[in-house]
Amino acid sequence: MYVINAGELSKKENYRMLTSIVTPRPIAFISSLSGDGILNAAPFSYFNIVSADPPLISVAVGRKDGKQKDTAVNILETKEFVVHVTDEDNVKEVNETSAGLPPEQSEVDKAGLTPVVSSTVAVPSIKESTVRLECRLEHHQVFDGEDSSTDLIIGRILSYSIEDNLIKDGRVQTEKMKPVSRLGGKKYARLGKVFELDRPE
C-alpha cells in the first residue's frame, strides 16, 4: 500500500486526492439572495445529506484567498437558500455559474437561467431544475486550515419541489431525474448501471 501523510500535502494536493477518491459526488446547485437583492447561484460538490429526522443537508463552501464566497455570505445574512439537483439537462448552465463574478452580478443572468418564486423561502428557485430543496440555515461552523478556511453550512429542508412526472409512490424516480455527479478534475458522470442488494437481517 502506498501511504501518504495528508498533513504533508498542500491544499491543492489534498484537493486532487480527495476529489479523485470520494466519487461520485452529488452536485448541489445553490441559489441564495444577497442583502441587496442580487440572486447568486453556484455549484458545490462537497455536499450531502446529514439526517432524515430532522431533514438536514450539509455543504462545505471553501473560502478563496481567505474571503468568504458569495453563497456563504448570503446564507449567513438571510438564513435561507435553495439546493437544486444538477442533471443531464442543466449541467452545462450550472457549470457556467461557477465563474467568479463580483457580488453585484448574478450568475443566474449570465447563464441564461430562469428564476421562479419558491414555495417556502424568499430566495428564488431556478426553473431549469426539476428537483429543489428549500432550506433554512440550521448551523454554521468555520474550519481553519493552514492556507485557507471552509464554511460548513448545515441546512434544514423546509420543502421539496419536484416535477410531477418524477414522483412515484412517495419517492423520486432517480433514473428519470438523470442526476449528474462530479468526479476528479473536469470529469462528470451520469447515473450509469443501477442494481439492488438486500440488506442482511
TrEMBL record:
* SMART domains referenced in this protein's UniProt entry, alphabetically: Flavin_Reduct
Give the InterPro entries listed for this entry.
Flavin_Rdtase-like_dom, Split_barrel_FMN-bd
**GO molecular function ontology, one term from the record:** FMN binding
Q: What domain of life does the UniProt record list for this protein's source? A: Bacteria
Q: Which residues form the Flavin reductase like domain?
A: 20-174
Ranges in a coiled coil: none
Q: Which UniProt keywords apply?
A: Flavoprotein, FMN
User: What are the required cofactors?
Assistant: FMN
Keyword Iron in annotation: no
UniProt cross-references to Pfam families, sorted A to Z: Flavin_Reduct
Q: Does the keyword S-adenosyl-L-methionine apply?
A: no
Q: Could you say which protein family the record assigns here?
A: Belongs to the flavoredoxin family.
Q: Mind telling me what this protein is named?
A: Flavin reductase like domain-containing protein
Q: What is the lineage of its organism?
A: Bacteria, Bacillati, Bacillota, Bacilli, Bacillales
